[in-house]
Amino acid sequence: MSERTSIESRIVDVAWDDTRAASLRDELDADLGFRYEGFHGDEPAERAAARARALAMHPDEIVATLLAVLDDAPVGHVILRRLDAEWEIKRLIVTPAARGRGVARALMRAALDRARGGGAARVILQTGLPQPESIALYESMGFTRIPVYEPYAETMPRSVCFSYAF
Q: Which positions fall inside the N-acetyltransferase domain (predicted)?
């Protein structure tokens, strides 16, 4: 097993439809599909459709799409969006080759800095038990667990949600 060391990536703002960002979101969707396969059990199609609507991203809600770049290659991605009156972190991903090297933490710090600079009192996020690495990261950064919030409470009541207050 090789030892992983911290790497220095650049965090850049990109458009929501940036092809590198879209490719990383596709990679995240594939990973989450694998992790959550069977997690929701045998559920009615209407509930699965409602969950898909709850997870949908609308470009007009997005405050920032941040990309971590190393040697001109995208290695991570996160979105900061407005969810009604809240600021929410979404779609955090780090490529397998860059995991364990501080990229996710750098992306999260950049998203938090952006939210703080935009006047947010706190930031919220939603994840799930099949994502233990994410839960560990959020807890290590000082996020605290909160009750499951909408739009996830109805369709994903077993979500794990967090907030970070400034």
A: 22-166
Q: Which residues are registered as beta bridge partners of 73?
A: 70
> CA triplet 26, 30, 36: central angle to 5 degrees?
135
Q: One-letter amino acid identity for 79?
A: I
Which of 3.40.50.300, 3.30.450.20, 3.40.30.10, 3.40.630.30 is the CATH number of 10-118?
3.40.630.30
Tokens encoding 78:
């996160």
Phi, psi dihedral angles at 124 (to 5 degrees): -120, 160
Q: What's the length of the chain?
A: 166
Task: Reduce the DSSP state of residue 138 to 3 states and report it.
Answer: helix
Q: What are φ and ψ of residue 97, in 5° steps?
A: -65, -25
